[in-house]
């Protein structure tokens, strides 16, 4: 069963075959493809559903009137774009595709049906919500207090573990399809600053970045440099 959502949920809780089949079925509802740099859900829209990322990278972002953008979350295969969608509410942010993405649309009613009488499914979805909140807290801490190099090192460590848990990291090598402006918008820096910070990580022998692929040459060193503790990711 090659499904990043199911693989991710199994990191939280041991699932019975029928639970895996149920989650796999959720991931096959209303599947569509979205081109790179297009919105999956626009700011100020009023959806009564969430989207599940099946393939590709997306982001949650805020757009300012003068055109500036703040990326407040990176969304990877297996991620629910909004795991808290229990009621209709106007979007105060947008969900945008950073690469070509494939998504499934899931309604709160479908989630409610999935957890009814299925304690393992309910627990793994709750744990996923807790992990999402913890990631937000770490991002706030990064922008608020980590140095420039600590922010980027921490983000690379986080992305490595998040991709590894769904089978999309090859050892310490992982796809890195985002641009330097994307990283700048995610870390509250300029593209020039990101370029300098990347160079410092390279010359320190911690990472290599080539052809949209990141290789972590010294994972322990990168974790130390980014003050990274993986406990917040709720890995079992």
From TrEMBL:
Residues 146-220 form the HTH crp-type domain. It holds the Pfam family HTH_Crp_2. The keyword Translocase does not apply. This is Crp/Fnr family transcriptional regulator. Gene3D superfamilies: Jelly Rolls, Winged helix-like DNA-binding domain superfamily/Winged helix DNA-binding domain. The keyword DNA-binding applies. PROSITE patterns: HTH_CRP_2. GO terms for molecular function: DNA binding. Keywords: DNA-binding, Transcription, Transcription regulation. GO terms for biological process: regulation of DNA-templated transcription. InterPro entries: cNMP-bd_dom (IPR000595), cNMP-bd_dom_sf (IPR018490), HTH_CRP (IPR012318), RmlC-like_jellyroll (IPR014710), WH-like_DNA-bd_sf (IPR036388), WH_DNA-bd_sf (IPR036390). It comes from Methylobacterium mesophilicum SR1.6/6. CDD domains: CAP_ED (cd00038).
